[in-house]
């Protein structure tokens, strides 16, 4: 058993020096080595999941949430992170279950506006694809996927706000 330990020392100066230490521990039996970007830590589960709900619970058990892509720079970082990983595909936040074509965060309900869909996606195949995955073999681009499908079983990409 091992634990990833990430400690960051953040320094800021506004008429005084401020120091904050952030410590995050992740069980390496459950997650691959994390990667930090700006004020967030990203990590991929070792397990695969038959449903988005189970994937979300895994992120929450590590005090995080399913990765929410907020801007193009973050999207490129996450696509590269997946490309360098040992997994084929990962859930990321986003659903259009309430209104087809209007993608929102499952956690906050905020509209998702940043996309890099694979060719022909989203296609809402059989009217059932209401979640999002990134697929490594498609240059880590997006695909809409059934939220509860034991045949697909993506890993999950989680994030934690560091500050």
Automatic annotation (TrEMBL):
**Does this entry carry the keyword Transcription?**
no
Superkingdom, natural source? Eukaryota
SMART domains tied to this protein: CLECT
Task: Quote the PROSITE patterns the UniProt record gives.
Answer: C_TYPE_LECTIN_2
Q: Give the C-type lectin domain ranges.
A: 37-148
Q: What keywords were assigned to this record?
A: Signal
Checking Pfam families in the record gives: Lectin_C
Gene3D superfamilies in alphabetical order: Mannose-Binding Protein A, subunit A
Q: What is this protein called?
A: Ladderlectin
């Amino acid at each position: 058993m091992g634990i990833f330990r990430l400690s960051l020392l953040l320094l800021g100066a506004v008429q005084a020096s401020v120091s904050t230490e952030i410590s995050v521990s992740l069980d390496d039996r459950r997650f691959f080595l994390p990667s930090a970007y700006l004020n967030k830590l990203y990590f991929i589960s070792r397990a695969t999941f038959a449903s988005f709900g189970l994937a979300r619970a895994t992120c929450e058990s590590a005090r995080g949430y399913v990765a929410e892509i907020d801007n193009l720079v973050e999207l490129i970082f996450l696509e590269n992170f997946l490309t360098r990983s040992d997994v084929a595909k990962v859930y990321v936040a986003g659903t259009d279950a309430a209104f087809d074509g209007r993608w929102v965060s499952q956690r906050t309900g905020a509209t998702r506006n940043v996309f890099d869909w694979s060719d022909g996606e989203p296609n809402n195949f059989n009217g059932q694809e209401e979640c999002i995955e990134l697929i490594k073999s498609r240059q880590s681009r997006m695909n809409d996927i059934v939220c509860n499908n034991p045949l697909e079983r993506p890993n999950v990409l989680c994030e934690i706000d560091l500050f």
